[in-house]
UniProtKB/TrEMBL annotation, chain A:
Oligomer status and interactors: Component of the eukaryotic translation initiation factor 3 (eIF-3) complex.
GO (cellular component) term, any one: eukaryotic 48S preinitiation complex
Subcellular location: Cytoplasm
Higher taxonomy: Eukaryota, Viridiplantae, Streptophyta, Embryophyta, Tracheophyta
HAMAP family: eIF3k
Organism: Carya illinoinensis
The protein's name in its UniProt record: Eukaryotic translation initiation factor 3 subunit K
A GO molecular-function annotation: RNA binding
Main location: cytoplasm
One Pfam short name: CSN8_PSD8_EIF3K
Top-level taxonomic group: Eukaryota
UniProtKB/TrEMBL annotation, chain B:
PROSITE patterns per UniProt: PCI
Chain ranges of the PCI domain: 298-497
Region span, Disordered: 1-20
Task performed by this protein: Component of the eukaryotic translation initiation factor 3 (eIF-3) complex, which is involved in protein synthesis of a specialized repertoire of mRNAs and, together with other initiation factors, stimulates binding of mRNA and methionyl-tRNAi to the 40S ribosome. The eIF-3 complex specifically targets and initiates translation of a subset of mRNAs involved in cell proliferation.
Protein name listed in UniProt: Eukaryotic translation initiation factor 3 subunit L
Keywords in alphabetical order: Cytoplasm, Initiation factor, Protein biosynthesis
Pfam families: Paf67
Gene Ontology biological-process entries: formation of cytoplasmic translation initiation complex
Any one GO MF annotation of this record: translation initiation factor activity
Bias (Low complexity) ranges: 9-20
Length: 229, 523
């Protein structure tokens, strides 16, 4: 209980620092600790991490590639938000050429282009990078489901399985869980296995799309006031 | 004020005086032509009397006229020579020096020492303002120019410093000694301090409740106080957006601008330079964040505005800059529309200008072949901000030029993004033609296998659905679809018939016909 309170206070302090005094080289160690904190407590702060990357930009000698790597993994987990790109914009090219960063960039590329099978294959070959951050697998699966949800009304089981890297009995359990909690429905497709009906949203159901008002700006109407008057 | 005996300077004394000058400089910094003495005296008086209109006239017009006539390629007289005409007023001298350096940067090439001195002057000026002891009212144009020039000189210094290859030992020694000059921390912290000390964010908040009149008064203080700190604080928000863009931190840049509501008029629109700078960087940042629709909207608005109003700025010293930014924003708009085709968002006037300048290129960009990437490269390089490397150089290694590094990184990442969107244009073409199509068939037409097609379609969805700062998802796609098992259903947002516009036109037309009828006399 005491440690939790301590961490709460520390988080509050770091966020405040970033908001009030971000251009200050002295907060660099705090920001680095905060990254490690985000990793272990499964939280995330884009603002704080960008602040740190900026400081590394101002003083390249103080850059820790391990911390940068963790920031990038966290950013990947924030997809579909473009956080990974935002971080790359701040990391010098020669650093991005290092092996571990090239791998992360490849992983990002696969996720950006919907190539989930290749992503999970590559991630499996680099367990040391991705297992360093708890919650990585779940967040990527959440991203995969997000993309599927805006693309499909009904998605074949095999496609879903490949996207979230779960098969067989585990997949059955996963589906059960989402049927119970996320409004998924299971259907039989014409002889080709299960279809998963995903929840309705404005991106996979045109009728739910908000109407772009075909309005006329007031200034245009004022032009004909003399006529109407 | 004591009057001094001075011979009238001949009307065209652009040529430096021979005998009194330092041969090295080629002009005499202590020679003060009569017109300059008069300028300083009057400007000083107007500032003391808070005659904002007259200050503006002198600042905008007189200063330019004198520069054109007497100081085409030499600096203005030194502040020391001018000081005794203005009671050696400390603040006036800081203001005079600010203009002095700005003129130098515009017409000549500053030396390293001059760059450092200019930094010192800004520090002194801002410190005076931050201490709240300033009692002046200055025109918004001048206050904007201060912030704009401050950021510009910082950018210029970073570019200069990064070209280490041909630096003399003297220059290197100076750089090492004055490592605080134009230090990125200093620049950012001064801008931040102006924002904070002025309480401008709170003022803008309270304005929404009707508790403040800042925008209504154009930032001026009608209670006998000073507008300088508040307005500098306000423009510093735009300054921070600009600096963050130069560093490649688009997210934070946009956050800095957030307190300003760009959907409304405001103090930022009171000076055309600030309006353009704010929107240019806002649009660029949104482009890099893939929020194409947002960028297109804002570029469209400002380009229309410039089209309608640029004639009024023909005589102003900012005219060239306005035209340059105008051209750059057309290039950025061409990029946005090629990545994210939209029919409804661009005004007819802007659209026809765009077709004229980039119609040909936009067609080629949407082919996504090597030629297309070359054009994306060309337009991006032409229109992007002058990115900087903020860190101090290493003086140990073999001296190299690294001034292009920052730009090369941003370009590389931008082109990488463009390449990821390569196949989307093809998908769009097919989607426009069908209302439903099976995955198998489309895969055939696109000459890929089904699993690949599925990934392409998911890429299309992901890339066309932008995520804003609050995590909200919006679709940027003008042609959209959903998949039901193995069938694609196209959802075209029909370009809805613009009934409103149609009726307006017909109303006017009918009125014209009726008027004509009335004029006909029947025998």
């Amino acid at each position: 209980m005491g440690r939790e309170r301590e961490r709460e206070v520390q988080q509050y302090t770091v966020e405040q620092l970033v908001a009030v005094n971000p251009y200050n080289p002295d907060i660099l160690p705090d920001l680095e600790n905060y990254v490690n904190d985000q990793v272990s407590s499964k939280t995330y702060s884009l603002a704080a991490n960008l602040c740190l990357l900026r400081l590394y930009q101002f003083e390249p000698d103080r850059m820790s590639t391990q911390i940068v790597s963790r920031i990038l993994v966290k950013a990947l987990m924030a997809m579909p938000a473009p956080d990974f790109s935002l971080c790359l914009f701040l990391i010098p090219e020669r650093v991005q050429m290092e092996e571990q960063f090239k791998t992360l960039i490849v992983l990002s590329h696969y996720l950006e282009t919907g190539r989930f099978r290749q992503f999970w294959d590559e991630a499996a070959k680099n367990r040391h990078i991705v297992e360093a951050v708890p919650g990585f697998e779940q967040e990527i699966q959440a991203y995969a489901i997000h993309v599927l949800s805006v693309t499909y009304q009904k998605v074949p089981r095999a496609v879903l399985a490949e996207a979230i890297n779960i098969e067989g009995l585990s997949l059955d359990k996963f589906l059960e869980h989402n049927v119970a909690n996320s409004g998924w429905i299971l259907e039989k497709s014409h002889g080709r296995g299960q279809l998963i009906v995903l929840p309705r949203n404005e991106f996979n159901h045109p009728e739910l799309k908000k109407n772009t008002a075909d309005g006329v700006p007031l200034e245009h109407i004022t032009r004909i006031f003399p006529i109407l008057g | 004020m004591a009057s001094f005996d001075y011979e009238d300077a001949p009307a065209n004394s652009a040529a430096p005086a021979s005998s009194q000058s330092h041969e090295v400089l080629g002009y005499d910094p202590n020679f003060v032509p009569d017109s300059v003495k008069s300028f300083a005296v009057h400007l000083y008086r107007h500032i003391r009397e808070k005659n904002v209109y007259e200050i503006h006239q002198m600042y905008e017009t007189s200063f330019q006229t004198l520069s054109e006539r007497l100081f085409k390629d030499t600096p203005w007289p030194s502040v020391d020579a001018v000081a005794h005409y203005v009671d050696n007023d400390h603040v006036f001298c800081l203001l005079y020096r600010e203009m002095w350096f700005r003129h130098l940067y515009a017409r000549l090439s500053p030396t390293l020492k001059q760059r450092i001195d200019s930094w010192d002057n800004y520090c002194s000026l801002f410190q005076v303002v931050l201490h709240g002891v300033v009692n002046m009212q200055l025109p918004n144009q001048w206050l904007w120019d201060m912030v704009d020039e401050f950021v510009y000189q910082f950018q210029s210094f970073c570019q200069y410093r990064a070209k280490m290859k041909n630096k003399t030992d003297q220059e290197i020694a100076l750089l090492r000694e004055y490592d605080q000059a134009w230090n990125v921390y200093g620049v950012l912290n001064y801008l931040q301090a102006l924002v904070e000390k002025s309480m401008i964010i709170q003022i803008l908040e309270q304005e929404k409740e009707g508790l403040e009149q800042f925008t209504a008064n154009d930032g001026y203080d009608y209670d006998g106080g000073s507008n300088v700190l508040k307005v500098l604080g306000y423009f510093s928000m735009v300054g921070l957006l600009r600096v963050h863009c130069l560093l490649g931190d688009y997210h934070t840049g946009l956050k800095c601008l957030l307190p300003i509501d760009i959907s409304q008029q405001g103090v930022y629109t009171s000076v055309i330079g600030s309006h353009i700078t704010a929107i240019y960087h806002y649009g660029f940042a949104n482009l890099m964040l893939r929020r194409y629709v947002e960028a297109i909207r804002e570029f469209n608005k400002i380009l229309l505005y410039i089209y309608k109003t640029k004639q009024y700025h023909q005589k102003s010293p900012q005219y060239e800059q306005i035209l340059k930014k105008n051209e750059q924003m057309y290039a950025l708009l061409a990029i946005c529309l090629s990545l994210c085709p939209q029919v409804k968002l661009v005004d007819e006037t802007v659209n026809s200008q765009l077709r004229e300048k980039y119609g040909e290129k936009m067609i080629r960009m949407q082919r996504y072949d090597d030629e297309a990437f070359a054009i994306y490269d060309e337009l991006f390089s032409y229109a992007c901000p002058k990115f900087i490397t903020p860190s101090a150089p290493s003086f140990e290694e073999p001296l190299v030029n690294y001034n292009q590094d920052a730009y090369r990184l941003q370009l590389k990442l931008f082109l990488y993004e463009v390449k990821q969107q390569q196949l989307l244009s093809g998908v769009r073409t097919f989607l426009k033609v069908y209302s439903t199509i099976s995955l198998g068939k489309l895969a055939n037409y696109m000459e890929v296998d089904e699993p690949t097609l599925r990934t392409i379609l998911m890429t299309y969805k992901h890339k066309t659905h932008a995520v804003d700062g609050d995590g909200k998802i919006t679709s940027n796609a003008d042609v959209d679809f959903y998949i039901d098992d193995d069938t694609i259903h196209v959802m075209e947002s029909k370009p809805a018939k613009r009934y409103g516009d149609y009726f307006l036109r017909q109303v006017v037309k009918l009125e014209g016909v009726i008027n004509d009828l009335d004029r006909i006399k029947l025998d």
